[in-house]
Structure formats: C-alpha cells, structure tokens
Write a sequence for this structure.
C-alpha cells in the first residue's frame, strides 16, 4: 500500500441510524456540515438541485458540440490552455488531469475532514454552474453515504483552488488510489466493490470540476469555525467563574454600558456572563462594598470586550464562508440563464481568508487575556488569597503552570501572524495571485487547540480560588454548574501533585462543550 497506516487518522464510523442532511446548493449551514462530517449523517440531494446539474451538463455538451473553446473541456488547463482536446481524447484527458494534479503531501486528512471536504464540494456543485455529469455528482453522495473516505494529503494547495489535493478524491471515483473504509486502509477499487459501487468514467469538464475548487479549505474551515464558536462560549463561562474567584466587580457587565457603546459581540458576551452569575452573592454587592476595589484589572474588566471582538470576527468570518459554501467557485462558470460558459476568478477566496486571519488575531487577544487572568488569580494583591493559590505555605501549587500557558500563548502569537500575502507567481506567470487558504485555516485550527489548554488552566485557577475563598455555596446559577463540571473530574488541590493530567482532562471537557451552560440561551445570545 502507498501509505503508512500509523500516519492515518482513523476510527470514524457512519451512524447506523442514518440520519440525513439534505443538500440543495444554497442553504448548507456549518451545523449541518458538522453533522455529516463529525457525526456520520448521510446526505440526500434536493431534486431541484439535481435538475440544475443535469441542465448544466446538457448545456455544456451543446456548447462543446457548437465548437465553443472551453477551458478544461476542449482546451487544456493552466499554461496548456492553448492545446485542443478532442472529444475522443476527453476521457484520457480527464484521467491524466487527475493523476498529474495528485501531487499533495501529508499529513493526511482525518476521516471527519475528508467528509467535510466532500460535503463542501458536493453542495457547491449543486448550484449547477460546474458542468459536471450527474454520475460524478452522485458519486460524492455515494462515497459519503457508504463511508468511503479517500486518502487526502493536506499540504500542496496555495489557496487558489485546492487542485493538488482534491484530485485524490477524483482518483477514488476512478477506482484508483487508496481509501479508509470500515476502519481499514484499502485500495479504492476494493472499497467500491465492497459497497456495491463501480468506478465511473470522467469526461468533458468532470476532472476540472472535481479539482478546481476550494473545498479543502472551505470544508475544513467550517469545522474550525464550529470549534471556535464553542470555544468562545466556553471562554465566557470560564471568565465568569474567574470573576467569582477574585470576588470581582460586575459593573463592566451592566447593559447600560453597552447601550452607550453598542458593540454587538461584547454585549452578547456580557449578557451571557451576567446570566451565569445570576442568583449568586457576587451580584448582590455594589463596587463600593468591595474594599479597595472600584475597578478590576483590565484582563477582567475588558474580558467581554476582548471576547466580544472575537465573536464579531467569528460572525463576519461565518458570513463570508457560508457565502462560499453555498455558491459556485468554478472556473469557467456555467451561466444557465445566459446559456454560456464564462471564464472567471470565482475560485478566489481572499474575502474569507482575510476574515480567518482577523479571527486568528482576535483569538490571540483572547489567549493573552486568559493568561493574565490566571496570573492575577495566583497573585495575592488581586485575590486576597495565597500566592499561586497554594492550600498551605509548603505547597508550590500553580506556580510552574504559568510557564505552560504563557509558552502556549507565545505559540498562538506566532500562529496569528498573517500569511495570506506570501505567494509565488506560478503556471508560466499566469497564476500570480493566491491566498494560502489551507494554511490560514490550519493556523486557526492550531490556535484553537492551544487556546483550549490555556482556558482550561484558567478554569483550574478559578475553581481553586473559589475553594480557598469558601464561596462555592454562593455562586451564580451558571457558575455553580461550571464549577461542578470542573470538580467532577479534577479535585481541589490540597497538596502538590502532577498537574498534567488535570490540564488534559479539563481540555477534554472544554472540547466536549459541557461548560456552555443553558443560561446562554436564556440571555438571547445565539452567536
């Protein structure tokens, strides 16, 4: 076999209950894509969307028969766009196109990522603007529903259509290459036969329609945005607990401050944090009652503004990416209404790549603020508690943990550096713009992984501070639940112990989403 099995993410299984997500080319949400990619849902295709694809394929055939020169159909691709492709050469040309473009390198996409990639491309094909034959369209659906996942190396795209990567999916349709099926690595042809499927012949624009798309970047980007959404909500939860931990002031959460400065994300963050604190003693005290504390450090006072800025960045990024997922990124593009083929630059994804870069920077701010809150939680001048939240003078407690979360923050700072403008002019100087979209998405994914640990370590500090303060019985309704969620898996620190397992288990809890409390829904926040 071509791949070392130990390098392949596996363990995916299609849900035996076979819940279905209906794709129509214009209404796919991130939540629906996650259902297919992460939870094994199958897909069905809307009848009207299939009719569009059939109409587009028929129109393309008519244009070819009339002698209209069409890129990637009766003419070559890239610098070879001046070479004529005859009807008799069509199948061989498509096969060569896929084989020659399959030039990406590992690591390989997980099965969840492959399903996200195929779902993203399948939905955009349903716009009818590609000219792909219905048999190829149905193959995407059949592969997803059968749980056949092509081996897709992740590195090799410059973000101007993911051609070197998506070609590996096309090879599976030909019965070539290797796939994961039923938890095993096997030749694609073997998997197709086991699922009672047959390879298909690709003709006309099929090969180009398969590879000339940003489905790798968009599909994986959608998964990342789902993770960011959950992580930002969790960050608000942990901040609320940290505020309880320092017995802080709640005035920065007052809705009046957002009426005079109506920042949407910040207001939503503050409303959620307030809902977590409702019913607790912290809400009963005015700032004047807190001896020597009118205002908290900015990492606490401005937390909702920082988190809110990330929420706003996420909201903008989601809008841009959803537009992409529910539109065509084909070149050339079929204009069904005008009954013509139009050379285009619809594969350009600068709009949402820049949004991802903004999101990365905003998450770096979230990381830095969380680190400072953890430092402040271990500082007696802020909390009135012991240094590093030690249960007794002999205990070192959380002192050394500072090195862990600040080192991770440094990595996030590096990952937040923009890279979308770093590209070469390729294909004989024709392709002189790119975005590095897959790398941009992977950087945000890597930031989320590190930020999960950082927020988790803040959670450990907050829970320990509450234990030392002795106010676990008087927490807000939401913060009490968050505190219990932590203490269900990590006991109070009473003496020095190995902290790595504590950090790991809290990170796993955060990834599961259990620290997002129902009171968020009561606050009216959906985003």
């Amino acid at each position: 076999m071509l791949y070392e099995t130990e390098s392949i993410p596996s363990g995916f299984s299609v849900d035996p209950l076979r819940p279905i997500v209906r794709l129509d080319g214009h209404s796919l949400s991130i939540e629906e894509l996650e259902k297919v990619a992460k939870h094994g849902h199958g897909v069905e295709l809307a009848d009207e969307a299939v009719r569009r694809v059939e109409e587009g394929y028929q129109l393309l055939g008519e244009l070819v028969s009339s002698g209209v020169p069409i890129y990637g159909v009766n003419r070559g691709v890239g610098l070879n766009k001046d070479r004529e492709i005859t009807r008799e050469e069509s199948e061989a040309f498509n096969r060569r196109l896929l084989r020659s473009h399959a030039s990406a390198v590992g690591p390989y996409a997980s099965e969840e990522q492959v399903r996200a990639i195929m779902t993203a491309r399948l939905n955009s094909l349903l716009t009818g603007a590609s000219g792909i034959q219905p048999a190829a369209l149905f193959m995407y659906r059949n592969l997803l529903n059968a749980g056949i996942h092509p081996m897709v190396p992740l590195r090799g795209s410059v973000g101007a259509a993911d051609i070197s990567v998506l070609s590996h999916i096309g090879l599976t349709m030909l019965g070539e290459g290797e796939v994961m099926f039923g938890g095993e690595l096997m030749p694609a042809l073997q998997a197709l036969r086991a699922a009672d499927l047959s390879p298909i012949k690709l003709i006309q624009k099929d090969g180009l329609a398969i590879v000339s798309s940003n489905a790798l970047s968009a599909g994986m980007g959608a998964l990342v945005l789902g993770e960011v959404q959950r992580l930002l909500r969790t960050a608000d939860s942990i901040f609320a607990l940290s505020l309880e931990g320092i017995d802080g002031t709640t005035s920065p959460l007052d809705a009046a401050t957002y009426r005079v400065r109506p920042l949407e994300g910040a207001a939503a963050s503050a409303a959620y944090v307030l809902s977590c604190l409702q019913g607790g003693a912290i809400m009963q005290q005015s700032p004047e009652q807190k001896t020597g504390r009118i205002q908290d450090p900015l990492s606490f006072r401005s937390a909702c503004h920082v988190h809110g800025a990330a929420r706003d960045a996420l909201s903008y990024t989601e809008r841009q990416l959803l537009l992409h997922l529910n539109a065509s990124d084909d070149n050339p593009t079929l204009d069904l209404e005008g009954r013509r083929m139009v050379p285009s630059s619809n594969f350009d994804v600068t709009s949402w790549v820049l949004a991802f870069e903004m999101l990365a920077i905003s998450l770096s701010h979230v990381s830095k603020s969380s680190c400072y809150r953890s430092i402040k939680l271990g500082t007696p001048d802020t909390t009135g508690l012991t240094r590093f939240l030690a249960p007794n003078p002999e205990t070192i407690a959380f002192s050394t943990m500072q090195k862990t979360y600040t080192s991770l923050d440094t990595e996030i700072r590096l990952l937040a550096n923009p890279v979308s403008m770093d590209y070469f002019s390729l294909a004989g100087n024709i392709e002189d713009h790119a975005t590095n979209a897959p790398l941009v998405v992977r950087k945000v994914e890597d930031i989320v992984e590190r930020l999960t640990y950082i927020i988790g370590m803040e959670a450990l500090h907050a829970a320990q501070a509450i234990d030392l303060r002795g106010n676990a019985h008087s927490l807000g309704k939401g913060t009490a639940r968050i505190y219990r969620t932590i203490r269900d898996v990590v006991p109070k620190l009473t003496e020095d112990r190995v902290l790595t397992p504590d950090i790991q288990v809290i990170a796993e809890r955060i990834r599961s989403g259990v620290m997002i409390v129902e009171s968020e829904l009561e606050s009216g926040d959906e985003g």
Q: What stands out?
A: DSSP finds 20 helices and nine strands in the chain. Confidence is low (pLDDT under 50) at residues 1-11, 519-527.
